[in-house]
């Protein structure tokens, strides 16, 4: 049948009409799919194939084989036949076949075990050849005893040192010894706080210290920002009344970044109301992380 294809001005193809092969329902198809599309749905396709199985015999690739146990005929795909040597109609037939020919099927897989001696209790036991290099003990109990003995030997190699913050005696491996040794994180924190080892100019995040003066308009701008934000912390939502004291005002872009130009630094758009703890401190911590 010769078909005339009409095209819209936009370049789209006008769909053609034909009837479903199974239910006769009228369907619309693209001209390029006119010969290929025959059904209105997958359901209709399945129903038609069930009614007319002979029409699809030429599409089947399955081969007829026999069950290796009961000789029942069954269909198998060529790809499945390549993967397996035997074919079975059910799991029951497969299990019966394996029980019947157990020696022939599994004898090649089994390997003779080798007799070795446990390094802990000196008892002899058998292992497969592939595990000769890894197995040294006959049981978990023997392995545990050996590990305990090795741990004691390693402990004797440790060096005795005194905590730099308190008189506690600690034992450390030679590889773990440093200039400062501590018995706990609390002692380490206490020592660093007392000695100022990582404080001030010794800190990796040091940027010149706190700024005490923010310009002549700072107090006025501070009042305006607190009023604009309804005297409420903009991060956690707590009010000055709930907080119990006056809230802080924070520079979103740090004051020191303006190189002394206090008018630009103190613009209301660059200021925000925050509670001192924890929101204001969190903001400053994040600024330090961004710098690092």
Automatic annotation (TrEMBL):
It holds the Pfam family HNH. PANTHER family: HNH NUCLEASE YAJD-RELATED. GO terms for cellular component: cytosol. Residues 20-52, 67-101 form the TRASH domain. GO terms for molecular function: endonuclease activity; hydrolase activity; nucleic acid binding; zinc ion binding. Transmembrane segments: none annotated. Belongs to the HNH nuclease family. Residues 220-281 form the HNH nuclease domain. Keywords: Endonuclease, Hydrolase, Nuclease. It comes from the Bacteria. This is Putative HNH nuclease YajD.
């Amino acid at each position: 049948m010769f078909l005339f294809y009409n095209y819209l001005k936009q370049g789209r193809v006008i769909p053609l009409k034909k009837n479903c092969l199974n239910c006769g329902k009228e369907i619309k198809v693209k001209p390029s799919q006119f010969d290929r599309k025959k059904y209105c749905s997958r359901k209709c396709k399945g129903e038609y194939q069930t009614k007319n199985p002979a029409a699809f015999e030429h599409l089947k690739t399955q081969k007829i084989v026999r069950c290796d146990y009961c000789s029942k005929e069954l269909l198998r795909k060529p790809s499945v036949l390549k993967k397996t040597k035997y074919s079975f109609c059910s799991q029951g037939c497969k299990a019966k076949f394996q029980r019947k020919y157990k020696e022939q099927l599994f004898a090649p897989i089994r390997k003779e075990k080798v007799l070795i001696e446990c390094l802990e209790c000196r008892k002899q036991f058998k292992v497969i050849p592939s595990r000769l290099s890894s197995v040294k003990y006959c049981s978990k109990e023997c392995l545990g005893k050996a590990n305990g003995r090795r741990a004691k030997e390693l402990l004797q190699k440790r060096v005795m040192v005194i905590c730099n913050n308190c008189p506690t005696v600690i034992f450390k491996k030679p590889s773990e010894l440093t200039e400062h040794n501590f018995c706990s994180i609390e002692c380490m924190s206490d020592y660093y706080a007392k000695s100022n080892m990582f404080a001030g100019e010794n800190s990796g995040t040091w940027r010149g210290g706190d700024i005490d003066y923010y310009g002549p308009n700072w107090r006025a701008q501070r009042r305006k920002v607190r009023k604009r934000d309804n005297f409420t912390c903009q991060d956690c939502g707590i009010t000055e009344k709930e907080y119990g004291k006056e809230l802080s005002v924070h520079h979103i872009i740090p004051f020191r970044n303006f190189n002394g130009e206090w008018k630009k630094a103190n613009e209301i758009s660059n200021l925000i109301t925050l509670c001192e703890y924890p929101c204001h401190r969190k903001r400053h911590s994040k600024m330090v992380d961004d710098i690092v």
